[in-house]
Write a structure and sequence with these properties.
It comes from Paenibacillus marchantiophytorum. Keywords: Membrane, Transmembrane, Transmembrane helix. This is YcxB-like C-terminal domain-containing protein. It holds the Pfam family YcxB. The strands form 2 sheets. The chain has a 4-stranded antiparallel beta sheet with strand order 1-2-3-4. By secondary structure, it is α+β, with helices and mostly antiparallel strands. It starts with a strand and ends with a helix. The protein folds into 2 domains: 88 residues, PH-domain like, CATH 2.30.29; 69 residues. Helices cover 51% and strands 23% of the residues. A hairpin with a 5-residue loop joins strand 6 and strand 7. The protein is elongated.
Length: 166
């Protein structure tokens, strides 16, 4: 099965959000930072002999602001990519067959055998074919003619992966 798609900044941002909240390694790191920043800030304020309630409130508030700032900074960085960030954004052709997954864009081509693929996942807008713990081929479902075609592509990729591991 072959599909031609166009990856936009929004697609790449959506992938980063998906990875942040669904990949255990990234999710754990994000959660640890969300917990540790308010705790450290509270402890620092207590070291200045400020009242406990005051320190706790400002620790939580300041830590929350730091977490929001970090998230928004990541979004700003991704959304500031030029429309033609070669290799990441732009038009590409993705093909899956019994051998593996193949991608071709204006500056590169890549292939992975199914034995090198970690997982095939999807959400409401995308199909992700993970070839590493955090690297995936992003395939927007809007690239297909219908929801049935995107479902067939997803199921076929899962079959190829399952056949490889059995």
């Amino acid at each position: 099965m072959k599909i031609t798609t166009n990856i936009t900044r929004s697609d790449y941002w959506d992938y980063n959000k998906y990875a942040l909240f669904n990949i255990p390694k990234l999710r754990n790191r994000f959660m640890i930072s969300n917990i540790s920043v308010p705790v450290v800030l509270t402890i620092l304020l207590l070291l200045f002999k400020l009242p406990f309630v005051f320190s706790l409130c400002w620790g939580i508030f300041g830590g929350g602001l730091a977490c929001v700032f970090s998230y928004l900074n990541m979004k700003k960085r991704v959304m500031s990519y030029p429309d033609s960030k070669e290799g990441i954004l732009g038009e590409r052709t993705v093909e899956i067959n019994e051998i593996g997954i193949h991608q071709l864009n204006s500056v590169s081509q890549s292939s992975y055998k199914w034995s090198g693929v970690r997982s095939v996942e999807q959400d409401e807008k995308y199909i992700f074919i993970f070839v590493d713990s955090i690297m995936a081929y992003i395939i927007p479902k809007r690239s297909f003619g219908s929801e049935g075609e995107s479902l067939e592509f997803f199921r076929q990729a899962q079959r190829y992966l399952d056949n490889c591991s059995s």
